[in-house]
Amino acid sequence: MTGNKFTREFTLPPYLSDRYRNIPLTTLSSILVSVLGQQSEELGQEAELEAYFKEKNLSWIILKFDMDIDRQPDAGEKLRVETYATGYNKLFCYRQIDAYDEQGDLVVQSTVTYAWFDMTKRKLARLDPDIMTLYGADYEKRIRRMKTPEFDPDQASEGDHFEVTYFDIDINNHVNFTIYLKWAIQSLGVDFMNRHRVQSLSIKYDKEVLEGEEVTVKTSLSPEEDGQVQTISKVESSRDNATVVLDWVQRQNQD
Q1: Is 39 strand, coil or helix?
Q2: Rounded to an integer, what distance in angstroms lies between the CA atom of residue 101 and that of residue 77?
Q3: pLDDT tens-digit series, residues 159-180
Q4: pTM, whole model, 2 decimals?
Q5: Strand residue runs (E) in 50-159
Q6: What is the mean pLDDT of the chain?
Q7: Dihedral sign from CA coordinates of 184, 185, 189, 191
Q8: Domains and CATH numbers, the chain
Q9: Pfam families per the record (predicted)?
Q10: Rounded to whole angstroms, how far apart are CA atoms 19 and 252?
């Protein structure tokens, strides 16, 4: 059973586009995830939820983010974004976010695993069933496995280094979830990016990256078959931070 559905329309401004007039995946990811906060406003519970989270010093965080891209939206397009909860257990909440174009075609599908984060203890907190009920989420005992392909360090690059900048930090005082995706893509280089586009992505977040830290991104590439290739990037600081899996296809006529 799906939770309460919430829909919001967006017009994608040209100034957010990349060199191919597509909306970058980092920007698109932020737009999709922003709908969750807007649903809280629509429920009329924003003030109550804000007070609850402030009292307990909690925040939402993303533990896993998956996206399938049938077509990367272009600048100037109008998107209808629909989201709903698909279930929760004592620690994790699962949500579906879908984007449709003006013709009603499904262009992007995303599944997100959320959790509550105790800002004082810097660890996960148990979910409150009363709050989950507001979103129409059904309780499920099982914890869904967060699978990622195995990373082979022997097949990986030596690594690219990135320093955490002021603008990488979000409201939770750690690196925003989209920055890991940006690092993984940048580590592949301009030539690779000009020849390929992302068809699907999966990011599993393990340990947060904090302000002042430096990360190393090591990436392995699968052999290219029929224009398709998979990259697996490991983001590391003094600990394992995240794994970013990207499935690529060759660009056609610079699409």
Answers
A1: helix
A2: 7
A3: 999 999 999 999 999 999 999 9
A4: 0.92
A5: 58-69, 78-88, 92-100, 106-118, 123-125
A6: 92
A7: positive
A8: 5-135 (3.10.129.10), 153-250 (3.10.129.10)
A9: Acyl-ACP_TE, Acyl-ACP_TE_C
A10: 15
CA 23 to chain centre: 15
- pLDDT, one tens digit per residue, over 48-96 is 888 999 999 999 999 999 999 999 999 999 999 999 999 999 999 999 9
Please provide the DSSP assignment of 151-213 as one string.
Answer: P-GGGB-S-EEEEPPGGGB-TTSSB-HHHHHHHHHHTT-HHHHHHEEEEEEEEEE-S---TT-
Taking the mean position of all CA atoms in its chain, how far away is CA 216? 20
**Structure-block tokens of residue 167:** 């603008």
| Three-state SS at 62 | strand
Residue 171: phi and psi, rounded to 5, are: -65, -20
78 close to 105: Cβ distance less than 8 angstroms: no
What single-letter amino acid sits at 34? S
